[in-house]
């Protein structure tokens, strides 16, 4: 092979010029030794054919050939070890640089987010003040009623004040939720880069991020009747999924209980939603989503929802598609509710599987040893019906 061509190929696969020169010299030396060995072998064959007189000389040449072969193997072994040590040192230096860079980027992003969110909080405060004043105007008691009943005026003013507090509380909760999500993303990204390769720590972080599922009464219409729900209003994010963690999955499959995620209010839509999971028959996994209407009146236009979900693999930490379904159009009023069944279809690199039971989840590495749990990312997107 031409020297220039070999050099270009070596640089293309990441070998430095200095390493290539050493390898090239060793190969040239080996070629030279091979030529010498071949010539000695030819001489030895000639002398051996000459009779018994050349036997001793032939033996000496064979010993020399064997010695040359041993020297060649020793040179190659030393060269291989030296290259491995150099590559390991290079990998260590690169890893150290990446960790430092990830830490620095995480700090910068966190600082920028805190600055932006401080401005957002100030803007929300001003917006709430404006909203409260406008709301107060709409709640003003008519002139005739003020003259007729001063006690009613005081009651209505008190109601308006309570309504303003409710609006302000709801807006503050929404801002706090958005701030928490953004800061959590920045911290997660920094932590992921710093602790890359530590699988146990990754699973612990993922478990903290997941919203732990709770068992609910299978025959209950109100999903909050059998367990306590956080008093804070949870808003479903528009541009990212939420996570549902189901612990002790083996006992869940045998108990026949329905496991429910936390209840989320959808943004810009008078609905709340909850993901439900249970097992039937031969431990076959079943899932659906429950919607509740919060509107006291029918909507002007119906809503459809695209519901999708992925399940996390414990080996690769990647997510495989588990379900994707479009709901029927919803256009009903409070206290209406409806369940949407989710046909399950597990999609992996090896194929798609529709029959999903507990054994399949174990065999395909979707059950984590820690907590004997599964973790599901799910999202709800709305569109006009």
UniProtKB/TrEMBL annotation:
Which residue ranges does the record annotate as region Disordered?
A: 125-171, 183-227
Q: Composition bias, kind Basic and acidic residues: at what positions?
A: 156-166
| Compositionally biased spans, kind Low complexity | 125-136
Q: Which domain of life is it from?
A: Eukaryota
Where in the sequence does UniProt note compositional bias of the Polar residues kind?
A: 145-155, 196-206, 216-227
Q: Return the protein name.
A: Uncharacterized protein
Per the UniProt entry, what species is this protein from, by scientific name?
Answer: Elysia chlorotica
């Amino acid at each position: 092979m031409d020297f220039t061509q070999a050099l270009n190929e070596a640089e293309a696969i990441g070998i430095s010029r200095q390493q290539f020169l050493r390898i090239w010299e060793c190969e040239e030396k080996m070629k030279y030794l091979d030529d010498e060995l071949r010539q000695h072998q030819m001489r030895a064959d000639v002398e051996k054919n000459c009779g018994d007189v050349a036997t001793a000389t032939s033996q000496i040449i064979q010993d020399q050939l064997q010695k040359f072969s041993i020297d060649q193997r020793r040179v190659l072994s030393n060269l291989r070890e030296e290259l491995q040590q150099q590559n390991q040192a290079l990998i260590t230096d690169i890893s150290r640089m990446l960790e430092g860079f990830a830490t620095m980027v995480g700090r910068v992003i966190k600082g920028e987010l805190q600055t932006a969110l401080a401005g957002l909080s100030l803007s929300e405060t001003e917006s709430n003040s404006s909203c409260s004043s406008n709301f107060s105007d709409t709640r003003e008691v008519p002139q005739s009623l003020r003259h007729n009943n001063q006690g009613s005026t005081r009651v209505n003013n008190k109601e308006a004040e309570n309504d303003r507090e409710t609006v302000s509380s709801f807006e503050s909760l929404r801002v706090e939720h958005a701030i928490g999500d953004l800061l959590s993303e920045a911290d997660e990204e920094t932590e992921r880069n710093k602790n890359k390769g530590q699988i146990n720590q990754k699973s612990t972080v993922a478990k903290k991020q997941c919203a732990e599922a709770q068992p609910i009464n299978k025959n209950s219409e109100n999903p909050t009747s059998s367990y306590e729900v956080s008093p804070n209003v949870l808003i479903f994010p528009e541009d990212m999924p939420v996570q549902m963690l189901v612990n002790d999955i083996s006992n869940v499959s045998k108990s026949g209980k329905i496991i429910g995620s936390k209840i989320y209010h959808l943004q810009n839509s008078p609905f709340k939603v909850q993901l439900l999971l249970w097992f039937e028959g031969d431990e076959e996994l079943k899932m659906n989503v429950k919607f509740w209407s919060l509107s006291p009146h029918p909507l002007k236009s119906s809503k459809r929802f695209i519901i999708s979900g992925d399940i996390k693999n414990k080996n690769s930490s990647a997510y495989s598609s588990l379900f994707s379904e479009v709901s029927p159009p919803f256009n009903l009023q409070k206290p209406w509710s409806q369940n949407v069944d989710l046909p399950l279809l597990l999609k992996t690199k090896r194929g798609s599987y529709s029959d999903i039971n507990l054994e399949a989840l174990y065999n395909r590495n979707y059950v984590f040893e820690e907590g004997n749990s599964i973790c599901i990312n799910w999202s709800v997107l709305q569109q006009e019906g």
